[in-house]
Every structure is written in structure tokens, then in C-alpha cells.
Amino acid sequence: MNRRAWGGGVAALLLCAAFAHYCVRIVPADAPQRASAPPEPRAAPPRADRPVATGALLIPVEGIPPSALVDTFTQARAGGARPHDAIDIMAARGRAVLAAADGRVEKLFWSEDGGRTLYQRSADGRLVYYYAHLDSYAPGLTEGQALRRGQTIATVGSTGNADEAAPHLHFAVHVMRPDEPWYGGRPINPYPLLVRP
């Protein structure tokens, strides 16, 4: 073996020894353990003012848990003359109303029954989400505007034929044909879409 090869081998051996000395710590199994790094903090529990997502759709009133929802879809309205075809979400006046899904503002409309309303078409165009009895719209909201799930779009109120003493969001979902206007469609029950079974 020549000297040059032998010297290279010794240098490599010294480098390995230095690495082991400075970088590797061998601890016997019975040695006392040093305190490890503190555990990562747990995620904070959801606050009451955050959006609550449990089903296919976001519950469209800020901070309302699934346990507060009541399925009122088949309840009679107008003295039994028609079904409700929606869910009423009771909340304090002025509480934020949130977009239940991604989509686009189809229509901002005032009606005698619904008061201040908002119609949102889903991103795929197959559904319309109807928000009624609103106290106000979010500042700058316009027809045609793109909406993201959880975005504040309005506030809870009691406009239209709602009881002034019982502000709430009237929330409905309609299945749409491609050619149907914002006021058309077939109502489906939003309750199971908001609350995971």
C-alpha cells in the first residue's frame, strides 16, 4: 500500500471519529433521560365567533353550533297553506351571515315576505342558496360578485314578514336546471347538508 492511500484512509478515519464525537450522542438504555422538548400546543378549541363546519355546507350564521339547529323544512307556514321549505337559524340581530359554500351573488332583492334577501348560485351552477330576513348586506357586496365559503355576506335581522322580536336567518337551498332563473328551482332540505348525520 502506498503512503498516499494510507494517509487518505487515516484522514477519513479521523473525520469519522470527529463526526461521532461532536454530532452523535450515544446514551445507555439505563441512563437518566433529559427533559425533551415541550409538546406542541394543542389547537385552540373553536371559539363561538368562528364559522362552524360540520356538513357539506357551512352553517351560514357565525358561531352557531349544529346542536342549535332545528329542522323546520316541513313545518307549515301561512296558516298551513304552504310548507316552509327552509330552515330558520335563530341568532342575535347583527350576527354575521356567512356564505355556506363557494359561489356567486346571483341576486340582491327585497321581497314582502323575505325582506332583504340574497340569492347565491353555487360554483357549479346546480344549486341556489337563499338567505332571507337580512338586516344588512356586507359593505360593497354586489350582484355577480364571487363568494368564498365562510365569507361574511350580510347580518341577521327580521326584515320582511319575520317577527321583530325573533331575528333569524331563513336559509333555503334549491336544485336548479341550467336554464332556471334565480327565483326558480326545486327546494331541498338544507338541514342534512348543514349537520353531518
Summarize the structure.
Helices cover 13% and strands 29% of the residues. By secondary structure, the protein is of the alpha+beta class. β6 and β7 form a beta hairpin.
Taking Cα atoms only, what radius of gyration do you get, to the nearest Å?
Answer: 30 Å
Q: Which structural class matches the secondary elements?
A: alpha+beta
Catalogue the unreliable spans: 14-54
What is the mean predicted local confidence, pLDDT?
78
Terminal CA distance: 77 Å
Shape: globular
Residue share in β-strands: 25-35%
Give the number of helices.
Answer: 2
Write down the secondary-structure element order: HEEEEEEEEEEEH
Helix content: 10-25%
Characterize the biggest β-sheet. 9 strands, antiparallel
* Total DSSP E strands: 11
Keywords: Hydrolase, Metal-binding, Metalloprotease, Protease, Zinc
Cofactor: Zn(2+)
Protein name: M23 family metallopeptidase
Domain M23ase beta-sheet core: 83-189
Could you explain how this protein is built, in words?
The chain has helices at residues 3-23, 191-194; strands spanning 76-77, 82-83, 87-90, 96-98, 103-111, 115-122, 127-137, 146-147, 152-156, 168-175, 186-188. The longest helix has 21 residues, at 3-23. It is built from 2 helices and 11 strands, in the order αβββββββββββα. Strands 3, 4, 5, 6, 7, 8, 9, 10 and 11 form a 9-stranded antiparallel sheet that branches. A two-stranded antiparallel sheet has the order 1-2. It starts with a helix and ends with a helix. With 197 residues, it is an alpha+beta fold. The relative contact order is 0.17. Keywords: Hydrolase, Metal-binding, Metalloprotease, Protease, Zinc. Residues 83-189 form the M23ase beta-sheet core domain. This is M23 family metallopeptidase. It comes from Sphingobium naphthae. Pfam families: Peptidase_M23 (PF01551).
